[in-house]
Amino acid sequence: MDPIYLDNSATTRPDPRVLEAMLPYFRDMYANPSSVHMPGQRARAGMEEARRAVARLIGCPADGVVFTSGGTEAINLAILGVVRSGRRQGRHLVTSAIEHPATGRTMDYLESQGYTVSRLPVDANGVIAAGSLARVLRPDTLLVSIMHASNEVGTIQPIAEMAAVVRPLGIPFHVDAVQTVGKIPVDLTTLGVDLLSFSSHKLHGPKGVGALCFRPGTPLAPQMYGGHQELGRRPGTENVPGIAGLGAACRLAGELLPEFAARVGGLRDSFESEITRRVPDIVIHARPVPRAPHISKIGFAGVDGEAVIISLDILGVAASSGSACSSGALEPSPTLRAMRCPPAVLNGSVRFSLSRETTAEEIVRASAIIAEAVTQIRRLQ
Ligand code: PLP
Predict the structure, then answer these.
(1) What is the pLDDT of residues 240-254, one digit of tens each?
(2) In terms of C-beta density within 10 A (0-12 exposed, 13-18 middle, 19 or more buried), how is residue 365 classed?
(3) Distances in whole angstroms, Cα of residue 168 to Cα of each of 12, 163, 193, 219
(4) Residue 250 a catalytic site member
(5) pTM
(6) Alpha carbon of 100 to ligand 1 centroid (Å)
(7) DSSP secondary structure string for all residues of 92-135
(8) What is the spatial distance between Cα 106 and Cα 17, in angstroms, rounded to a whole number?
(9) How far does residue 72's CA lie from ligand 1's centre (Å)?
(10) Ligand 1 near 102 CB (within 6 A)
């Protein structure tokens, strides 16, 4: 029997319709989209159709979409591209204490180059207090970059509220929406931000492709040197099949979005009820606050999370810690630490993440397997 896949925040299965949309660009329409001949222009037309699909989903103009190699590159381009554009003078940036390393490490790098970075703290549910932002903003703040939903615990940040503070000051605001695009409505204008990054493989598209969306007029310097592709903002021959796949994934996500939160969120809630019923001494992280509907991070008191993940793997459930580990060493998650997570579950937390393909039957079966694994580990120690 195939494992029950509950690691959809790490990546999702490419939708067969996405694969269909990509195939012609590998097989037939392989010409370079920068070539002026007909085959080149056909490849370009496919790419531009995908750009319009991204723009529709995110609510930005099509010429405010730069295709990248994924979420990490989009985030790097947003942060470094704004900082190095020279449009604003300053040395100060604002982010949060619980960012994905794509943001966190980029900020670390800028710090090593003499910039000052304010990392906003979070409460016990992983929520940034919107008021804390106003207190750290300075006349020389270059950029604010905050994640929309935590990849680890799913907490959704009050981005629109924060943007209302930042925008009047003319400070560019970037949001890492890798965990929310295709899951909840994500609209550049409604959020009130200037730049937004996301990644195709989190919404049933192919890996190695993503997009940075931005409002017209946002300062953005390219971070590589080369050709004039992507309106000079990201040189290099575009990954046309991947981009066609991203476009198809966005079209599908847009169509399925109205039911995603209700269906997947409903399954997540019944999963959490089942686990609560079957397993004593657990903590469901960030349960009281708005969360991305597909993420459930559960702390099992007194057990080692890695042991649970390995045991689940053997028993046929794929899950993960959800925390990107820097050194290969088993360190407690920086996100849970920032949330001042109780010590009993700091090392015993596992992330389960669902997708639109997850079934109610899988949820019931997975809950029983998880209960069995945790009970066994607790008995053995
Ligand atoms: N930001 C968040 C919140 C993520 O969850 C991830 C991937 O897990 C990324 C950024 C990086 O995206 P990619 O894997 O496409 O580089």
Answers:
(1) 999 999 999 999 999
(2) middle
(3) 38, 9, 11, 16
(4) no
(5) 0.97
(6) 7
(7) EEEEETT--HHHHHHHHHHHHTT-EEEEE-B-TTSPBPHHHHHH
(8) 35
(9) 6
(10) yes
Atom of ligand 1 nearest to the CA of 73: 16
User: Residue 88 Cα, ligand 1 centroid: separation in angstroms?
Assistant: 27
Q: Which residues does 321 contact at the CB level (< 8 Å), separation at least 6?
A: 305, 306, 309, 333, 349, 350, 351
**pLDDT (tens digit, 9 = 90+) per residue, 164-222?**
999 999 999 999 999 999 999 999 999 999 999 999 999 999 999 999 999 999 999 99
The pLDDT-based confidence of 324 (bands split at 50, 70, 90) is low
The pair of three-digit structure tokens given for residue 350, joined into one six-digit string: 């596992």
What does the DSSP assignment read for 153-165? T-BBP-HHHHHHH
- Ligand 1 lined by 152 (C-beta under 6 Å): no
Helical H segments across the chain, by residue range: 16-27, 38-58, 71-83, 101-112, 130-136, 159-166, 188-191, 240-278, 305-315, 334-338, 343-346, 360-380
Asked whether 178 lines ligand 1 (CB < 6 A), one says: yes
CA distance 255 to 173: 28
Residue 353: both structure tokens together: 């993440």
